[in-house]
Amino acid sequence: MTCRHLRALRLASEEGTTIGKTLTLLIIFLVVVVAIVVIFAYFNGVFKFVSPSGGSMFASGVFAIVNGSENSGNLIIQVEDTSHVSITDVVLACPATQFASSDCGGLKIDLNGSPLSVQNPLRYGQTGSNSGLVDSPPGTTFTPGTAVDVTVTATFSDGSIVSTALILPAQFG
Fold it and tell me: How many domains is the chain built from?
C-alpha cells in the first residue's frame, strides 16, 4: 500500500471511532430512558398483566376510654394503601361481645375529609383515617388494659378484598 492509502485508511478509522462512540452513547441513553419509562409505568399500574395482583394495606388503631364514662370510648383507625391497587372502601367490624354496634358505630375511613369511594380512592402510599365514639354493650364497661378487637376489611379497585384483625388495648384517653 502506498502512503496515500495508509493515510486514508487511518482517517477512515478515526472517523469510524468517533461515529462508533457517538452511536454507543446514543444507544446507552435510549436504553436508560426506556428503562425509566418502563419502571415508572410498572409502579403506576400501567402494566396490569405483570403487576402484582390483589391489594395490600397496613391498618393501625387506638382505643381510648372516655374519662369518667367507662361505657364509651374513642376509636381511631388509620389505613394505608401499600399496594399499587387503590382502596375504594373500608368496612370496620366490632364484635358484639365488646361493642354495642357491630359496625363500630358506623365509622367510615376518610381521605381528606370525604369517605373512600370509587371516585375518592386511597392510592398507593396514602393514609386514610377517622375516629368516632363507640359504646360498650348494655350492662358492660370498658376496662383499661383489656384488648378490644376490630376487623378492618378493605375492598380494592381490582375487586380483591383484604382483612386485617387489630387487637387494641383499651386505655384512658
Answer: 2
